[in-house]
Amino acid sequence: MDMTFRPITVALAIVSLTAAAAVTSPASASPVLSSTISLPAGSDPFSVAFSPNGKKAYTANYSNSTISVVDVATGTLGTPIELPDGAGPYSVAFGRNGKIAYTANNGNDTVSVITVATGTLGTPIQLPNGADPWAIAISPNGKMAYTANYGNDSISVINLASGTLGTPIVLPENAGPVSIAFSPNGKKAYSSNSNGTVSVISVKTGALGTAIELPENAGGSQIAISPNGKKAFVACYGTSTVAVINVATGTLENPIELPEGAGPNAIAFSPNGKKAYTANYSDHTVSIIDVATGTLDDPVAVSFGAEPFAIAVSPKGKSVYVANSGHDTISVITGI
């Protein structure tokens, strides 16, 4: 498989005026790069996810077929989880209760099932040959998983209780799905496709709605749905923008312009939905978006050559983890 396609701070001073005088409260903290966690050389982390309780983070390390386990409180690495040789995990996600985690393995067309408490592997779920899964997402009710299968233009539907496959969702030819996300109410799912479209899927029936066309040369990478379910943001690597979709109407709003050459590859919302963060692969920064206004706060520089590939916000919204495929590191941003 051709793996060359790799997409895929303002301090607020609150002034309280009284009849006698003006009193200024201390400025709020600004996002900063507070630390860097080093992964084993040759890891090539392509995905990062926090456990639901925020105590652990996992990175899916494509090149050495491992999962790095981070103790969030200390920033230290635990014993890595060894996947089968050549698995090539491209994406990782935790189940709803945090007891099980799942990886979409691009190298061998499987989904690995991990018991979080012990780090042991269960029986893998076999996807169709040539699926080449790039992403996995868990439904809000925790009952199913979808994988975005770049290789055969499909979405695999997995019953997590039984580990069995349902009827696949077939996308248009050459769609090339690279990312998948569920709406918060679990009624729809959205696939960001490398052909510049977003597929809209009815979870109940598996039927496709009207596809959303992204701007020309957008090269859509990761898609994320806002916590209130009203907007979908797509990191557009090709145009260094974020496409904004009105979920109710399925139409595009004005895009959010990132710095020229940013090359966003991944995007995540804060838990309260007020901010969104992009991992900018090309200029080695993280952009911070005010969701209500679409304006940008000051970016956070990671490190030259880091190649930020994936991003996740902690469940309580206190930190952002950026998986850097170029440096085999996780950048930790706090003060958000």
Architecture blueprint of SSEs:
Blueprint: E1 15-17, E2 22-24, E3 32-38, E4 45-50, E5 56-61, E6 66-71, E7 76-77, E8 81-82, E9 89-94, E10 100-105, E11 110-115, E12 120-121, E13 125-126, E14 133-138, E15 144-149, E16 154-159, E17 164-165, E18 169-170, E19 177-182, E20 188-193, E21 197-202, E22 212-213, E23 220-225, E24 231-236, E25 241-246, E26 251-252, E27 256-257, E28 264-269, E29 275-280, E30 285-290, E31 295-301, E32 308-313, E33 319-324, E34 329-334
Antiparallel strand pairs: 1-2, 3-34, 4-5, 5-6, 6-7, 6-8, 9-10, 10-11, 11-12, 11-13, 14-15, 15-16, 16-17, 16-18, 19-20, 20-21, 21-22, 23-24, 24-25, 25-26, 25-27, 28-29, 29-30, 30-31, 32-33, 33-34
Q: Just give the CATH class.
A: Mainly Beta
Principal-axes geometry comes out as globular
Question: What CATH architecture do you see?
Answer: 7 Propeller
The low-confidence parts are: 1-27
Intertermini distance: 38 Å
Here the CATH topology equals: Methylamine Dehydrogenase, Chain H
How many distinct domains? 1
Summarize the model shown.
The protein is built from no helices and 34 strands.
Structure description:
- The chain is mainly beta and 336 residues long.
- It has a single domain (15-334), classed as Methylamine Dehydrogenase, Chain H (7 Propeller).
- It is 0% helix and 49% strand.
- It is built from no helices and 34 strands.
- Strands 4, 5, 6, 7 and 8 form a 5-stranded antiparallel sheet that branches. Strands 9, 10, 11, 12 and 13 form a 5-stranded antiparallel sheet that branches.
- A hairpin with a 4-residue loop joins strand 33 (319-324) and strand 34 (329-334).
- The two termini are 38 Å apart.
- Residues 1-27 have low confidence and may be disordered.
